[in-house]
Amino acid sequence: MQVRLAGLPAPRVGIVLGTGLGGLADAMQVQLAVPYAEIPEFPRSTVQSHAGQFLFGTLGGVQVVMQQGRNHLYEGYDPDDVCMGVRCMAGLGIDTFIVTNAAGCLNPQWDAGDLMAITDHINFTGRTPLAGENHDAWGPRFPDMSRAYDPSLVRLAMEQADALGIRLERGVYVGVHGPQMETPAETRMFKRLGADAVGMSTVMEVIAARHLSLRILGFSCLTNKNLPDCMEDAPIEVVIAMANKAGGNLARLIESVVGKLA
Fold it and tell me: Which GO molecular function entries does the Swiss-Prot or TrEMBL record give (predicted)?
């Protein structure tokens, strides 16, 4: 599955930027930008704030490829379309996958603007990118998900957050189909299931990445607080604004983590 990228070293780390988190690209020394529109049959990102391109270059002294904008099930895409980005990055040679998202906060002890390292997830979409015939060259028919998020990478993230003075929570992310926001009853259910944050991305990509035997580190930027007894509207403009506000800390943290992988 290995693919050569003419003129550039193979990337070691692949990074997906979620809604409102495109600012991390500013910390990257970009050597090449490839818009999705120039890649045959690659799905186009239709969400506000998603630039829709791959960036190749270095971050923290490490060769990386960054997916600036992703695809979602709620856009009408199939799981295979949603996962095409991480599968392409694996074909380019990455061994570590860092995924980010903007998410609603379910944990009442945390606040909007906080960052969360994902320690586990609940796939509540009813979909999987592994349905159908298995591609043995990618991975096994029944990939293990008991440690989907690499514990050593989570520890590294916590250490770097502490060194930078950034508050970083740890918790469980529940992925839903969307695009509608959660009802109060759904919010109560997700909390009782053990989720700390809820969003509409990430789980498809992580399943595909584990199938490919990649090491995974995930971050949620908590953009709004879901309190079932006093639910408030969370329009996309508010989500993007809060993600942009917290995105600076997330960019510093990811750059520091990637630098330690050199």
Answer: purine-nucleoside phosphorylase activity
